[in-house]
Specification:
This protein is mainly alpha-helical. Helix content is 70%, strand content 2%. Strands 1-2 form a two-stranded antiparallel ribbon.
């Protein structure tokens, strides 16, 4: 991937740099002196009256601004693949170790004397959600790196839409999350997991993982803007990741866990993400925290789970865009 496309469209960091340069150029024209001693630009008259500020907008559309940011963040990922590898390795370790160490014991708890669901099949949806969490954490870390390197301030002074900046960044990240989830599904099948719903179900699980990741991406970026510190962001997000995973239906059925964990799991977003992915894995209604019977079989789990995750995505996404806009205003002052 080159910094700029052959047809002149700005790409990656070069596109942001071009936008900064364009902004500076427009500002400079506001006080350009004409040859006859007059002035041209933002003033209403030559030396009379107050100077009027010029509202500068990006020459790109919303999608154009978002696409510039998609390319920039993908380019950063290619240049530093270590973060992506780390976010994938940890879930793989969990998948291999949990199935090998706890497989026989957990299988009994899952089936409770009836059924033949393997622990590999039961665990893969949980690891899919773990991948989404781990990869979403790196989103905030990437933003903090931008802040520390001064790139964040440069982006804020460009005329690009703040919502487009966040949308482009998020789109690049969820695309990588989708690839990571596909790798986990493939590895799970190799270890003996069975996706009852086939390829359509696998694509659905990837979609659930992406939908789940959006609220955590938003939270990660919000913390990054608030703290502007890499260590604080990493510590805060890791403190959330493991309690959310273990205090849910991820690794064992809720009815085999203490009552206080069952109560917490009812309000835990991970429970809804795992249950939605597991319903597609098993082609069955697996949700126990909500008793929904208005739909048929697997949809009794999918509809409420997707509704909860969608509401979280919209709410936290709006907060992230608001904080980004507020950071832009503070930078301008």
């Amino acid at each position: 991937m080159s910094p700029a496309d052959a047809d002149g469209e700005p790409g990656g960091e070069q596109g942001v740099a071009d936008a900064v340069a364009a902004t500076d150029a427009v500002a400079a024209t506001g006080s350009t002196t004409a040859a006859d001693g007059g002035t041209t630009g933002a003033t209403a008259g030559a030396g009379t009256g107050p100077r009027r500020s010029v509202t500068r907008r990006s020459s790109n559309s919303f999608l154009g601004d978002a696409w510039v940011n998609v390319k920039r963040w993908n380019l950063k990922a290619v240049r530093n693949p270590f973060v992506l590898v780390v976010s994938l390795v940890q879930p793989i370790i969990f998948l291999v170790l949990f199935t090998q160490v706890f497989g026989q014991v957990a299988t009994g708890a899952i089936n409770q004397g009836a059924g033949d669901i393997s622990y590999e099949t039961y665990l893969v949806p949980a690891i899919v959600i773990q991948v989404s969490l781990a990869a979403a954490i790196t989103s905030g870390i990437g933003l903090v790196n931008d802040i520390e390197e001064g790139m964040f301030e440069k982006v804020l002074v460009t005329p690009m839409s703040r919502a487009a900046v966040f949308t482009g960044k998020t789109a690049a990240e969820v695309a990588r999350i989708a690839v990571q989830i596909a790798i986990i599904l493939g590895l799970g099948v190799l270890l003996g997991a069975e996706i009852t719903t086939g390829i359509a179900g696998a694509l659905g699980i990837i979609a659930v993982g992406v939908l789940f990741s959006l609220w955590f991406v938003s939270l990660s970026n919000s913390l990054a803007v608030l703290t502007r510190d890499q260590e604080s962001t990493i510590i805060a997000m890791n403190l959330l990741q493991f309690p959310l995973l273990f205090l849910s239906s991820a690794f064992l059925p809720l009815d085999s866990l203490p009552e206080w964990i069952q109560t917490f799991a009812r309000y835990n977003p991970v429970t809804y993400g795992v249950d939605a992915a597991r319903a597609l894995m098993l082609d069955a209604d697996v949700m126990t925290v909500l008793g929904v019977a208005a739909f048929s079989e697997v949809w009794n789990t999918l509809v409420p789970a997707l509704a909860v995750l969608g509401a979280l995505d919209l709410g936290l996404g709006a907060i992230a865009v608001y904080l980004l806009g507020r950071a832009s205003s503070a930078s301008a002052r």
